[in-house]
Amino acid sequence: MLINEISSNSPAKFSLNPISKKSDQLKASQPLAPTANNEEKSTEREAILLAKIKLLERQLTQIQAENNNLTTKLAKNEQEKAKLELTATQEKKRADNYHQQLKTIVKTLKQ
């Protein structure tokens, strides 16, 4: 019945966030006092975050160990590569020397 009495032509303006200047209201900068429910939620959240941190620490340890192993393998491969390059250079010099000796022998035989 009250709804019919309200005029639809001039809707009333109501503030959804009424502002009161009473000093007993919390100011925006004041933190809310922790309640038992908030404490339970924060304790649960802390436990979840702690579990995630521990998991990430384990993953980090595993990744660091794998990184160290790969670094060691890389160093060994680089040493092996250097040895192979040295061997290849020595073999090329030896082949060039034999080629030069063969040229000399052919030249001598042609005379």
Task: Please describe the topology of this protein.
Layout: H1 2-5, H2 36-110
Number of strands: 0
Overall radius of gyration: 43 Å
- Percentage beta strand: under 5%
Largest sheet, if any? none
Oligomer status: single chain
Unreliable residue stretches: 1-8
Order of helices and strands: HH
Specify the structural class.
mainly alpha
SS summary, helix count: 2
Shape call: rod-shaped
Question: How would you describe this protein?
Answer:
By secondary structure, the protein is mostly helical. The protein has helices spanning 2-5, 36-110. The chain is rod-shaped and about 110 Å long.
Quick summary of this structure?
The protein has helices at residues 2-5, 36-110.
Core attributes:
disordered N terminus, single chain, 111 residues, rod-shaped, 71% helix, mainly alpha, 0% strand
